[in-house]
Amino acid sequence: MLQPLPSTPVPSVPASRSGTTEGAHARSQTLSRPSLYTPEERARRDETRWTLVQGVLAPVQFLVFLISLGLVVRYLMSGNGETMAAASVLVKTLLLYTIMITGCIWEKVVFGRWLFAPAFFWEDVFSMLVLALHTAYLLAWTGGWLRGRPLMLLALAAYAAYLVNALQFIVKLRQARLQGARP
User: Fold this and answer.
1) H helices of 11-48, where?
2) pLDDT averaged over the chain?
3) Cα(99)–Cα(102) distance, rounded to whole angstroms?
4) Predicted local confidence at residue 114, as pLDDT
5) What gap in Å lies between CA 36 and CA 110, rounded to an integer?
6) Where is this region: Disordered (predicted)?
7) Kind and range of the H or E element at 88?
8) CA 146 to each of CA 82, 95, 133, 155, 157: distance values in angstroms, whole numbers, following the listed order
9) CA distance 137 to 72
10) Among candidates 49, 31, 37, which has minimal Cα distance to 172?
11) What are phi and psi of 124, to 5 degrees?
12) φ/ψ (deg, to 5) at 20
């Protein structure tokens, strides 16, 4: 039989001068969410050119993704434009490789490791899935293992993983901006 866990009393939070606990609540939120960057890492991030490279490549890759997604969906719905759709996935994949390589360099400069820095560990883990799916597309295309609809469905799987990964990075970017706004 399950026994309830003993409850521990929650320490009271002193009220601020205005009689509220808003300031204490904000401090507890800050303490519960560790900073993405140490002051030294933030300085390296702000000083390296690789931050700008990532900042340019990410939206370019997203734009190519949107165009390619449209071409892939068009092909899947109409059967027209297979060559354009396939070529667009190749361009998107080359951009993905480029941003992954430059991202590794950025991570090395900022955090001292090529991949899996604690601040971006799960984003990097999911990036491996994104790379694996895009690489599977390249191998299937160049090896002739998949053609037509099955190849484009593989592209859609790679794109779905990419979209999740892009959202992970957007959340991290927002977190970094919010932390940067703190005194």
Assistant:
1) 22-32, 39-47
2) 85
3) 5
4) 95
5) 11
6) 1-31
7) helix 82-111
8) 13, 22, 14, 11, 14
9) 13
10) 37
11) -70, -40
12) -115, 170
pLDDT tens digits, one per residue of 21-68: 444 444 444 444 578 888 999 999 999 999 999 999 999 999 999 999
CB atoms within 10 A of CB 112: 11
pLDDT (average), residues 93-97 = 97
What is the percent of the chain with per-residue pLDDT over 70, rounded to a whole number?
A: 80
Does residue 95 contact residue 57 with C-beta atoms inside 8 Å?
yes
Reading the block at residue 127, the tokens are 């990036």
What 3-state DSSP class applies to 2?
coil
Single-letter residue type at 23: G
| Number of neighbours of residue 29 by Cβ within 10 angstroms | 9
As a whole number of Å, the end-to-end CA separation of the chain is 50
Greatest Cα pair distance in the chain: 71
45 Cβ contact partners less than 8 Å away, ≥ 6 residues apart = 37, 51, 110
Three-class DSSP labels, 100-155: HHHHHHHHHHHHCCCCCCHHHHHHHHHHHHHHHHHHHHHHHHHHCCCCHHHHHHHH
